[in-house]
Amino acid sequence: MAARGERRRTPAAERPGRTAVDRSAFPYRMKDLCERAGLSRQVVHFYIQQGLLPEGQKTGRNMAFYGEQHLKRLHLIRQLQEERFLPLKAIRAMLGERDDAFTPKQRELITEVRQRLGPSIGVVGQPDTVSAAALLKEAGVSRAELERMVELGLLVTREKGGRTVLARDDAFLVELWGQLKKAGFTEAQGFRVDDLLLYTKAMYSLFVREAQMLSDRLTGLPPGQAAEMVERALPLINTLLVRYHTAQVRNFLAAN
What we know:
Layout: H1 30-37, H2 41-49, E1 57-60, E2 63-65, H3 68-83, H4 88-100, H5 104-121, E3 129-131, H6 132-139, H7 143-152, E4 157-160, E5 163-167, H8 171-182, H9 197-218, H10 223-255
Antiparallel strand pairs: 1-2, 3-5, 4-5
Helix pairs in contact: 5-10, 6-8
């Protein structure tokens, strides 16, 4: 019993407006989470606002606790953003699919496919980079157009050794845009970098449905066999997309 005149300290979880939380599952305050992730509080809050990171377990209006799953997610986001040069919009879409779309058995298949295809399509290891300045000069693309590509989430640039770089695998977008401009698709004619979104959004939507279809139908097979099938099908599907698009143009012109 507290002596007369003394005020008994009320545990945080018992204070009005506070909710109890399992500290063994959610051991980190925001300060702890930031220190372990090597990120600022502002960056972590930004990721939460953008839907990249789940909110913590709140115990009050201004207090929340976080678990290992939050720390792992932060490490993954930074890896995808800084090591793989992925835009935040792409990361958010990927993480949404990661959380909701695939069963553990399907993830086993995805892991097998990654191990098999990863080296050939640049999933393994740090991506090579190219100088943005040199690429822009060679492609005939302006710095403002590159910055717009970054803003739209088409690609990511980084500062490295005092110069701006981007992943070599993304350089084709800049080169392609430069070739389109040389072919007459200029801003004077009403064409802008934003028009590329028509194709990238359609391709992403197609890919999500494709990934779900393949994972649904191949999961029952041995992972190695399923991965081999995907590896053999990839160039065939790429050929289908190119030739079918050409066929659509041909049919449209023939009918008009």
